[in-house]
Amino acid sequence: MHRKLLISFSLRVATVCSYAQTWSVSGRVTEAGSGSPVTGAVVRIGEDYLWAVSDADGAFVFRNIQPGKHEMEVSCLGFVSIVREIDVTKDIEGID
After folding, report:
1. What is the per-residue burial (b if ≥16 Cβ within 10 Å, else e) of 69-96?
2. For the whole model, what pTM was predicted?
3. For each of the chain's 96 residues, which pLDDT tens digit applies?
């Protein structure tokens, strides 16, 4: 009896979770002033410590970000770190 109830509950939770909307956040890390891409910068989003590393073009991308306000931090050896808040309500592209 308990086993059927647990399985039924688990299936309902899985169904509800599969409909949760998530978004993507992408952009480029560039050097202030020159606009040159910064390779190897660490970009962190939120308290879950989701992170990405910028590629040779300075590009980064996050997928499956939960909606809401998140802290975004960009850091790289030899540069001053930057922290700003982003409000994820849709896909965000072109953060520089």
Report:
1. ebebebebeeeeeeeeebebeeebeeee
2. 0.76
3. 444 434 444 444 444 444 579 999 999 999 999 999 999 999 999 877 799 999 999 999 999 999 999 999 999 999 999 999 999 999 999 998
Contact 70, 89 (CB under 8 A): no
Return d(Cα 53, Cα 66) in angstroms, integer: 20
**CA proximity to 27, closest of 50, 46, 55, 47:** 55
For 43, residues 6+ apart whose C-beta sits below 8 A from its C-beta are: 29, 51, 52, 53, 54, 60, 62, 72, 73, 74
Encoded amino acid at 63, one letter? R
**Token code pair at residue 27:** 């952009």
CA-only gyration radius of the chain, Å: 18
